[in-house]
Write a structure and sequence with these properties.
There is one protein chain. The chain is of the alpha+beta class. The chain has a single domain, classed as Sufe protein. Chain: A (Alpha-Beta Complex), CATH 3.90.1010.10. It has 5 helices and 5 strands. Strands 1-2-3 form a 3-stranded antiparallel sheet. Helix 1 crosses helix 2. It starts with 13 loop residues before the first helix and ends with a strand. The N terminus and C terminus are likely disordered.
C-alpha cells in the first residue's frame, strides 16, 4: 500500500505573501538612533532600527532570521511607524500588526509579537540612553536628553 505524505500548507493572507515576497525596509541602519532585538522561543530573531527626529520616528528598518510571517511582520511594522511619536509607536500591539497583515494563522501570530517586542526594546533603549519626552504648552511633544 502506498502512503501519501500530507503537505502541511499554511494559509497566509495576500498581504503577508506580498510583504514576504517583496519586503520593505530590510537591512541594518548604521546611523540608527534606537535599536531593538528580540529572540523568540521558536528560534526567530527580530531586529529593528529607528532613526528619530526629536521624539518622532523618521525611518525604520528591520532584519529577521525568520521566514514568511516574520519577514512580513517586519516589513509592515517598518511602514507603520514612520511619522509616529515614540509614545504612539510603543502602543502598537501584536493585534494591530496582525490586522495590518490581513491576519496570521494562530501558529504564526508570535511573529507579530516578536516584532512589536523588538520595537518596544528599541524605544526602551532610546530612553535608557537619556532621552525623555517633554510635553510643551502647545501640546507638542519633543525629545530632550536628561
Amino acid at each position: 500500500m502506498e502512503q501519501q505524505k500530507e503537505s502541511k500548507q499554511v494559509d497566509y493572507s495576500a498581504k503577508v505573501i506580498e510583504e514576504a515576497a517583496h519586503p520593505q525596509n530590510v537591512g541594518r541602519m548604521s546611523n540608527a538612533d534606537a535599536y531593538g532585538i528580540h529572540r523568540g522561543g521558536c528560534g526567530d530573531t527580530m531586529e529593528i532600527y529607528l532613526q528619530l527626529d526629536g521624539n518622532r520616528i523618521q525611518r525604520a528598518m528591520f532584519m529577521t532570521s525568520g521566514h514568511t510571517p516574520a519577514i512580513a511582520a517586519g516589513s509592515v511594522l517598518t511602514t507603520l511607524v514612520p511619522g509616529l511619536a515614540v509614545e504612539e509607536a510603543i502602543r502598537i500591539s501584536a493585534g494591530d500588526l496582525i490586522e495590518a497583515l490581513g491576519g496570521l494563522p494562530d501558529t504564526h501570530a508570535h511573529c507579530a509579537e516578536l516584532m512589536v517586542n523588538a520595537l518596544r526594546q528599541a524605544i526602551a533603549n532610546w530612553h535608557a540612553r537619556g532621552h525623555t519626552v517633554k510635553h510643551t504648552q502647545a501640546g507638542e511633544t519633543v525629545s530632550e536628553r536628561r
